[in-house]
Amino acid sequence: MALLEIKDLHTFFDTKKGTVKAVNGVSYSVDAGKTLGVVGESGSGKSVSAMSILRLLDNNGRVDSGEIIFDGKNIQDCTKKEMYKIRGNDISVIFQEPMTSLNPVFTIERQLSEPFIIHQGMKKKEARKKVVEMLAAVKIPNPESVAKQYPHQLSGGMRQRVMIAIALACQPKLLIADEPTTALDVTIQAQILKLMNELKKEKGTSILFITHDLGVINEMADDVAVMYCGQVVEMAPARKIFTKQKYSHPYTEGLMESIPRLDTPTGVRLEAIPGAVPHPLDLPKGCKFAPRCKYATDKCREEEPALVKIEENHQIRCFYPDKEMRKDGK
Ligand SMILES: Nc1ncnc2c1ncn2[C@@H]1O[C@H](COP(=O)(O)OP(=O)(O)OP(=O)(O)O)[C@@H](O)[C@H]1O
Ligand code: SF4
Ligand SMILES: [Mg+2]
């Protein structure tokens, strides 16, 4: 059953140069106790769609239309106060750079114990004990001494563990992880991913895992949504995306071919997908992927394909989802 369901979400930003349609009709769902991996190049709308759920958009941003159903309730109907409660109790977020989320002037113990003292009315001593337990749960060695340290005294990997501890402290139903390991080196990244998978199994937390790295998705996701230019272009169980099969989106195909190269710095062109993501204020007519797609036809350049159910649990936004048809037909 879906814990979170986004239906036909449109999130726009008003800018001096025009309206940026950052999220343009996105639908996806996260099942209870499962991980949905959202993947796509920079600027595809991965973060904006997630931040729309939490209503944490920049001031010039707005959800123009669509539904966000969380735990059976339309989040759009929630008051500010109800949203505040959802963010504190039901949905937690981990971002790429933990330093920006941690307050540099307070010890880890102080920042972690505060919510327990304020929201749960715990005594200081009790809250401190809880903090050490939380740090131990995310496998931080010597949790008592780490609790006394300031954020800058910890390594990037340790800080990200602290963020996971904070995010999981209220036992959220949904954890949104937006590129949580991108800033970390490969070994630490593997440890953090393993930890998140263990916590998911233990606590049954659902995870919305955002990344530009299909390799990471392969480690983490039960289901995958591939995004391009503010839209979902393919959605399927991870095993379908990662096994050779009859149907796929040409963009997913390109991402798969470039897996070993995906750890290049942002902005570096992926060899398997020629060209660059179009500017959001200058999107092409027809299929948004057409200028970069080696299978594009005149029809693709004129008409926009819809996201269509190809088979059970598998949707693709392409006129030619059958790989054979692409090779033979054109
Ligand atoms: N405040 C804003 N004003 C105008 N445009 C914005 C604003 N915030 C985001 N955008 C635009 O929305 C689009 C989607 O951005 P988003 O951050 O969701 O991309 P992303 O897929 O998360 O990329 P990345 O992998 O770089 O994090 C981009 O074109 C971005 O420039
Ligand atoms: S609709 Fe055409 S251009 Fe778009 S992804 Fe499919 S084949 Fe490529
Ligand atoms: Mg992002």
From TrEMBL:
<feature type="domain" description="ABC transporter">
    <location>
        <begin position="4"/>
        <end position="254"/>
    </location>
</feature>
<keyword id="KW-0813">Transport</keyword>
<dbReference type="InterPro" id="IPR013563">
    <property type="entry name" value="Oligopep_ABC_C"/>
</dbReference>
<keyword id="KW-0547">Nucleotide-binding</keyword>
<keyword id="KW-1003">Cell membrane</keyword>
<dbReference type="GO" id="GO:0005524">
    <property type="term" value="F:ATP binding"/>
</dbReference>
<dbReference type="GO" id="GO:0016887">
    <property type="term" value="F:ATP hydrolysis activity"/>
</dbReference>
<keyword id="KW-0067">ATP-binding</keyword>
<dbReference type="GO" id="GO:0015833">
    <property type="term" value="P:peptide transport"/>
</dbReference>
<dbReference type="InterPro" id="IPR003439">
    <property type="entry name" value="ABC_transporter-like_ATP-bd"/>
</dbReference>
<comment type="similarity">
    <text>Belongs to the ABC transporter superfamily.</text>
</comment>
<dbReference type="InterPro" id="IPR050388">
    <property type="entry name" value="ABC_Ni/Peptide_Import"/>
</dbReference>
<protein>
    <submittedName>
        <fullName>Peptide/nickel transport system ATP-binding protein</fullName>
    </submittedName>
</protein>
<dbReference type="InterPro" id="IPR027417">
    <property type="entry name" value="P-loop_NTPase"/>
</dbReference>
<keyword id="KW-0472">Membrane</keyword>
<dbReference type="GO" id="GO:0005886">
    <property type="term" value="C:plasma membrane"/>
</dbReference>
<dbReference type="InterPro" id="IPR003593">
    <property type="entry name" value="AAA+_ATPase"/>
</dbReference>
<dbReference type="InterPro" id="IPR017871">
    <property type="entry name" value="ABC_transporter-like_CS"/>
</dbReference>
<dbReference type="Pfam" id="PF08352">
    <property type="entry name" value="oligo_HPY"/>
</dbReference>
<dbReference type="Pfam" id="PF00005">
    <property type="entry name" value="ABC_tran"/>
</dbReference>
